[in-house]
Amino acid sequence: MSTVVIQGEALGKSYHRGALQHSTLLRDHLSRMLKSPLSVFRRPKDDIFWALKDVSLEVREGEVLGLIGRNGSGKTTLLKILSRITKPTTGWAEIHGRVGSLLEVGTGFHPELTGRENTFLSGAILGMGKSEIKRKFDEIVAFAELEQFIDTPVKHYSSGMYIRLAFAVAAHLDPEILFVDEVLAVGDAAFQRKCLGKMGNVSRQGRTIILVSHNMAAIKALCSRCIILDKGGIEFAGPTDEATARYYAESLNMNGGSDLSSRLHQGNGKARFTAICIQPLSASGARVENAYPGCNLSVDVTVECAAPFAESNLAVIFYDSSGYRVIDTNTAQKGQFVSLRAGQTARANFLLHEVLLKPGKYFVGLWLGRDTLETIDDIEYATTLNFVENEETSRHSVVFPGMYLCRFEDTITIS
Amino acid sequence: MSSVTSNSAVAARLASPSAGYGPVRIEPPRGWFKLRLEELWDYRELLYFYVWRDVKVRYKQTVIGIAWVVLQPLMTMGIFTLFFGRLAKLPSNGLPYPVFYFAALVPWVYFSTALQNCTSVVVDNQRVITKVYFPRLVLPLSAVVSGLVDFAIGFIVLLVVTAIYGIKPTLAVLWLPILLLLAVLTALGVGLWMSALNALYRDVRYVVPFLIQFWMFASPVAYPSSLVPQGWRWLYGLNPMAGVIDGFRWALTSHGVAPGPLMLVSASVVLVVLLSGLLFFQRMEGTVADRV
């Protein structure tokens, strides 16, 4: 069992809402003091805003912890407290080891200085010693692919070059503990892959990482454990698969249909799923409002093609709330394959019969591609679907564990 | 908890030779009377880089960059010579006017720019402060130290000017480092207060130019301190820069007022301001990232 390197107990951070809104000018403060001297000492209790409340955590050496949650849930505040950028209002934390914090790309860069000068400056600000930077200088420049421009002032760099250099410096930090806050979101796809690779290397070397990101692919690829923060408190802490599924359940929170443009797409992008609509039907084919165990499901999927592809399999996949794949319906099972030319749109309809899933929340994923050869589009969580009790047929409303409600007949003989 | 007892072993193993880390404890700010200066030594390279950055940026794009360091006090010296010397005919301790004014302006310009830079340094660096940890004291220190580079250049010109007027230095020049130190500590002490206040109240930086103007006239820059009536001499002596300016002139030219017991009073004033400034700054340091 490896040792605990980060320990936090009941950490909290509060702000006085008034202080954030009220003017930060001395003359205003003074005039307020003159007008009503006691108001300076009065501080309304409900003016306090808790960005973080009662957060306790333990991170072991070598662990990669994902910190996920909606905007404003307190993730950056927690990282700032652990990085000592700001002090907590309550609680305490103990850190064992050198900390590097990557809360921003380009920390300390000055536009008038050259890339070379900024590398030294930023490296020093991030915590590297002068000799360390000198030693790693060539590596950093090579990683950023900026050999030709390293002696030009940074104000002449394009935003892409700037980001590459900034990340290259940060990526060569060698701390025992690394805090990364959403910096993976910058840059193009190729660069993001490079950054992820570097993060992976760092983790394989046994460093401890806390990663804050909205990029679920990165979280799943790197993190073994996740904490979900919501409104300043810990909502869930556990294995990554469960955490991401749970997080999606909150953020998607719709039932049955959606426009897929904002979903996380993977795959080479020759075609994209653009819409999905799931309509529960009764056994007779009539539309019903909610899916229930034993109902039929009509799933309509729209695909738009940008570049031609041939002989591909289109799949609609159902997962339960812990991310376990429950149903996989795909065209290949019927021997049918899809080929599209650029500009064409395809509409696929799947009619699932007698779906005997137990009441609960399920996720629906979509996949288009050729087996292991090629993935064209892959949306892990396209939409959610709630299965509710069928009031007519169910006699007992407690839902026991398990997902499949088999039709059965039973006879009990007593002797 | 069993994990707590194993932490000392972890700390020992993970302690890196460069930083000498034990476990770092993060807690809400508590108490007023604790100075934490040990960390500064670990961050001395960062201090060097900040000073290096300030100097580089100051001289990068301006054509007359380095020349400005010299031009500014020289031009002020010219104006003072004309208006305070020739027209107003203020006394000058028997020195030629240019020497009289320039010898005061070199340390004075150091002090005023150091104080102004120190005041705004924390707010100017808000982007870095909210993203990375380092002891925030590094910033005011860098402001005060980077001014010394300009001072060095101005001092060389000062030596040239005194040579031109045929004034020979004596052993009294040994006082110069002490006087310079006093100026540095005064700038730092007041600067820490201003810097912390400016981080809390954004308009403090606009008060500083007025403060400096007033301070200049309260110091013997444009006139000799012998002009001050005997009865008020002690109050005048409380101003540390009065001692510095007088002392500077005297150390270089042997004219004027030698540093006396009043210097001790000045020095103690400076120490009080510096210590209180340090405590106030460190008190504010913990939550400055929330306010900038």
Structural notes for this entry:
The complex is a heterodimer of chains A (415) and B (292). By secondary structure, chain A is an alpha+beta fold. Helix content of chain A is 24%, strand content 35%. Chain A has 9 helices and 18 strands. The relative contact order of chain A is 0.11. The mean pLDDT of chain A is 83. By secondary structure, chain B is mainly α. Helix content of chain B is 70%, strand content 1%. Chain B is built from 13 helices and 1 strand, in the order H-E-H-H-H-H-H-H-H-H-H-H-H-H. Chain B has helices at 2-14, 38-42, 44-60, 65-87, 97-124, 126-129, 138-164, 175-200, 204-217, 233-237, 240-253, 262-285, 288-291, and one strand at 24-26. In chain B, helix 3 packs across helix 7, helix 4 crosses helix 5 and helix 5 (97-124) crosses helix 11. Chains A and B meet through strand 1, helix 2, helix 3, strand 4 and helix 4 of A and helix 1, strand 1, helix 3, helix 6 and helix 13 of B. Strand 4 (90-95) of chain A pairs antiparallel with strand 1 of chain B.
